[in-house]
Amino acid sequence: MSHLPPKDWDLVRATHHADCKVYEVLKERFRHPGDAREDDFYTMKCPDWVLVLPLTKEGKIVMVRQFRFGVRQAGWEMPGGVIDPHENDPMIAGPREMTEETGYIGDAPKYLGWCYPNPALQNNRAHFVLVENCELHHEQDLDPNEEMQVAVYSLEETRELMLKHEITHSMALNALFWLEQYLAGKATPGK
Fold first, then answer.
1. Could you tell me if 22 and 113 lie in one domain?
2. Are both 23 and 60 inside the same structural domain?
3. Taking 70 as the threshold, does the pLDDT of residue 44 lie above it?
């Protein structure tokens, strides 16, 4: 068992492999700095994402349930999506996504934190934004391939949904972690 930290491999070259609409696949050749071994790795170049934690005046979370093609089933999660290039800011994209997907509006957003969704394959971040005092304002304004059920849950109910594997999206679970940190008065890391 090694107690030494792993070394950062050096990128030798990167070439375009496939364009997959919402991400690009790259074939990247890396070299180990210590023993010079090389190999090819396939990575995904993705735009950053944002998930919003919409809290009602009563402190309940507005959630969406949608079908996810990768696992071929629906699950509960927070509203969110891709941060469009012209926005380039989770504090703009988040409230927009929330309103489109749920019809809710609320106070000015607060930044909670971020994570790498899958650093083994992807280069992007998922950002977590809180919007408090949310109220239903209008109908959903969904994209052509979106279909979402909207519901409001207490924090305790969201914990039960996690335990029953009805919230299984890793970014949704991470978002709930950052929300609990915020509600406990603990500092968040910023962007």
1. no
2. no
3. yes
**Alpha helices by DSSP H, the chain:** 90-102, 155-163, 170-183
For the stretch 48-100, pLDDT in tens is 999 999 999 999 999 999 999 889 999 999 999 999 989 999 999 999 999 99
Structural domain harbouring 65 = 49-183
Same domain, 31 and 59: no
Whole-angstrom Cα Rg for the chain? 19
pLDDT bucket at 189, cuts 50 / 70 / 90: low
Q: Which of 157, 161, 175 is nearest to 110 (CA)?
A: 175
| CATH number (domain holding residue 151) | 3.90.79.10
Angle, vertex CA 161, rays to CA 129 and CA 79, nearest 5:
30
